[in-house]
Each structure stands twice: as structure tokens, then as C-alpha cells.
């Protein structure tokens, strides 16, 4: 009987300890932002996340809460991708992917519009699905590259745009917002989004620190440049920005088993045997060095899978810090735990961040000076 009681006590104690290890989060920084929405069946996280980031910037700069159109940026970026792909005879990236600076390039050239002015949805559709459209566009471009008529008709661009019109709707050149007419460029100016105010930062050793270089990843079809800083300083930039009311756009790898939208957690346990358990309970995490980060990038274990939006921080019951990262996969309880957010540990950010984008005023003076800004 004593043996049975002893075994019961051990089992009960084990359950109690495990219960104590379950994550308990407290919000520390929670910057105002707009509701989580879904990118649907599209690969346009770059526009959804950056649009969310811009919406927070509009709140910060003007106090206005505006749902801007993600698909307006997408609609205006596809022709740029197409031209690049055809002129490089298919030796370039044509896909649904992109990066934060592609949205800023679109704003610079075509402005911004609210979603009520351009939804990118046709008819009674309520969810975005670009699978068929992208397949058709890709087939068209590959045909143009083969040039079966031995003379590429300049009207190919018009034909490409017509397909976009059919699936996404014709582009908008003027609209009414709060009783006033705007062009998209006038609207971007009204909400105080100056594309020159935003900086892209990364941390890799193939280029000198504090210089700018073209980040060699597949979705950088537009050859955007990034400032390069040590990983310690990249984390410092994120922390300083959040502490001072600036949100941060993040391009990151979400292919790890220790990233789970369903559990709302992204961590890097020091012992891989704890990978799945660490989605629910606190386990020691890896000390991520610049060297290991570079190694994982060059081994293609860290890739630019997904762009998201950092809007704050939380801490667990042991005081460990996590970043509140707004996703664009909706708020379905079957797919997400924290209303569409994933909590990234600092170790995860140090290892799996490809790049960040933020307002230049969110930088520390020291790092801004090192980058020559």
C-alpha cells in the first residue's frame, strides 16, 4: 500500500510540475494596430504584413485607423515582376512572393488606397485565392519568353494586365474617402507615409557591417538593399523601436517544427528533444551566435518563408521575453491560439530573422550613426 501511495505521489508531483511549466503570458508592450485578417489562398504575406505595419504607422502619425488595401499593392507589383521576368528571359523570380520594400516601392509609384476603394475581390468572392490566376500568368509569361512568333508584341503587357483585371478588378485612379476625393498618391501623402522614412535592416556576414548590400534571397526580385548590422544590434533595434512606440515588420523563417501558429509559439530549444514539448512549456533555449545564424542561412535551413508584423512584447512567468508577432492567417481557433498572433522568443528572432523594416526614427542614435544615416 505504501508503495502504491509513493508511486501516486510521484505521478501527482510530475503532473503538478508539468502544469507549472505551462506558458503563462503577461503583456508588456502592446502598440495600437488594426485587426488580424487573412491573406487567404495567396502567397502575399509580404503585402498583408507590410500593410498592417503601415496601418500602425498611420495610427501613430495621424491617429486615424484605416484599413488599407493589400491587394492594391499586389495588383501594382505583379506587372513589375512580369517585366523583370520576361526581360531576364525567365532567369528571375516570378511568384506570389515579395518583400516589404516592394510595398514601399508600390506606394512610391502608385500611392495607397483604402480597402473600400480596391478590395481585389471580384463578384461575391469574400476570400482571396490566386492559385488559378498565378498559374495563368506564369504560363503567359513563359510563352512570351519562348517568343513563338519570333517577334514579341509590345501588347503582351496589356494582355497581362487584362488577366489581372479579370481576377482582381481594374486598378483605381481616384476615389472618395471621408467625403473628399483623392488620387492614390494624394491619399498616401494625406496619411503621412513617406517611403524615404523607412529602412530595411539585416544581419549576415557575407557583407561588411554598417554597409548596404543587396540581400541575395529568392523573393528579392526587385534587388532591394539592406543595411547590415550585427545580430545583437538588430535585436537592440527591435527592442528600442517597440519601447518607443514603433512597430516592426519582420521577414523570417517559419519552417521550423518549433514554430506553431496553432500553439502561438516560436522558440529554439537548446535540446532538440524538447522541440515539441517547448510549444507548450518553458524549456531552456539555445544561445544563438552570429556564426551559427550564418551557418543556418548558408545551409538553407533559414529561408525567407514569411513576413509578419511585430507589435509588442510579452513575458512568461519566469520573466522570459517574447515578441508579439501579428500573422496574416486569420483568427480561426483551429489555426491560432492568440487571436492570430505568434509569440517569438528572442532566440527565435536571433536565428530565424531574415530582415526587419521600420521607421528610421525608431533607430537608436548610435546605430543610426554607424549606418551613416
Describe the structure.
The chain has 373 residues and is α+β, with helices and mostly antiparallel strands. It has one domain: Cysteine proteinases (Cathepsin B, Chain A). It has 11 helices and 13 strands. The protein has helices at residues 2-21, 45-62, 70-87, 100-110, 131-146, 156-168, 184-190, 231-243, 290-298, 346-352, 365-370; strands at 26-30, 175-177, 180-182, 198-202, 212-214, 225-228, 248-252, 259-260, 265-266, 306-315, 321-326, 341-345, 353-359. Strands 1, 4, 5, 6, 7, 8, 9, 10, 11, 12 and 13 form an 11-stranded mixed beta sheet that branches. A hairpin with a 5-residue loop joins β10 (306-315) and β11 (321-326). The longest helix is centred in the N-terminal third of the chain and has 20 residues, at 2-21. The model is unreliable at 1-20 (pLDDT under 50).
Number of helices: 11
Helix content percent band: 25-40%
Query: Which shape, going by the Cα principal axes?
Result: globular
Can you say what the CATH homologous superfamily is?
A: Cysteine proteinases
CATH fold type: Cathepsin B, Chain A
Instruction: Look at the helices and sheets and give the structural class.
Output: alpha+beta
Mean pLDDT: 93
The number of domains: 1
Q: What series of H and E elements makes up the topology?
A: HEHHHHHEEHEEEHEEEHEEEHEH
**What's the CATH class, please?**
Alpha Beta
Task: Provide the CATH architecture.
Answer: Alpha-Beta Complex
State the separation between the terminal residues, measured CA to CA. Answer: 75 Å
Amino acid at each position: 500500500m505504501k508503495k502504491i501511495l509513493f508511486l501516486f505521489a510521484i505521478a501527482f508531483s510530475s503532473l503538478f510540475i508539468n502544469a507549472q511549466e505551462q506558458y503563462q503570458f503577461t503583456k508588456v508592450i502592446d502598440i495600437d494596430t488594426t485587426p488580424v485578417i487573412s491573406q487567404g489562398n495567396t502567397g502575399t504575406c509580404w503585402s498583408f504584413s507590410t500593410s498592417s505595419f503601415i496601418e500602425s504607422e498611420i495610427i501613430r502619425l495621424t491617429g486615424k485607423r484605416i484599413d488599407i488595401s493589400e491587394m492594391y499593392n499586389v495588383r501594382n507589383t505583379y506587372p513589375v515582376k512580369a517585366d523583370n521576368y520576361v526581360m531576364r528571359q525567365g532567369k528571375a523570380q516570378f511568384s506570389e512572393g515579395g518583400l516589404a520594400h516592394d510595398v514601399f516601392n508600390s506606394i512610391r509609384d502608385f500611392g495607397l488606397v483604402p480597402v473600400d476603394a480596391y478590395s481585389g475581390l471580384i463578384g461575391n468572392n469574400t476570400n482571396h485565392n490566386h492559385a488559378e490566376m498565378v498559374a495563368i500568368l506564369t504560363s503567359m509569361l513563359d510563352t512570351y519568353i519562348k517568343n513563338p512568333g519570333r517577334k514579341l508584341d509590345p501588347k503582351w503587357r496589356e494582355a497581362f494586365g487584362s488577366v489581372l483585371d479579370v481576377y482582381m478588378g481594374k486598378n483605381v485612379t481616384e476615389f472618395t474617402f471621408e467625403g473628399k476625393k483623392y488620387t492614390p498618391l494624394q491619399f498616401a501623402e494625406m496619411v503621412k507615409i513617406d517611403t524615404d522614412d523607412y529602412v530595411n535592416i539585416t544581419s549576415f556576414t557575407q557583407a561588411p557591417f554598417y554597409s548596404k548590400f543587396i540581400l541575395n534571397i529568392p523573393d528579392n526580385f526587385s534587388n532591394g538593399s539592406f543595411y547590415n548590422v550585427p545580430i545583437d544590434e538588430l535585436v537592440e533595434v527591435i527592442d528600442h523601436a517597440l519601447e518607443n512606440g514603433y512597430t516592426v515588420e519582420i521577414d523570417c523563417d517559419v519552417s521550423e517544427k518549433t514554430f506553431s501558429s496553432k500553439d502561438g509559439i516560436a522558440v529554439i530549444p537548446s535540446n532538440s528533444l524538447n522541440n515539441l514539448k517547448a510549444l507548450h512549456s518553458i524549456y531552456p533555449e539555445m544561445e544563438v551566435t552570429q556564426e551559427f545564424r550564418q551557418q543556418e542561412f548558408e545551409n538553407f535551413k533559414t529561408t525567407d518563408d514569411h513576413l509578419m508584423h511585430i507589435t509588442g512584447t510579452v513575458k512568461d512567468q519566469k520573466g522570459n521575453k517574447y515578441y508579439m508577432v501579428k500573422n496574416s492567417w486569420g483568427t480561426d481557433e483551429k489555426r491560432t491560439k492568440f487571436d492570430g498572433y505568434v509569440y517569438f522568443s528572442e532566440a527565435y528572432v536571433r536565428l530565424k530573422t531574415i530582415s526587419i523594416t521600420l521607421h528610421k526614427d525608431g533607430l537608436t542614435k548610435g546605430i543610426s550613426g554607424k549606418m551613416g544615416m
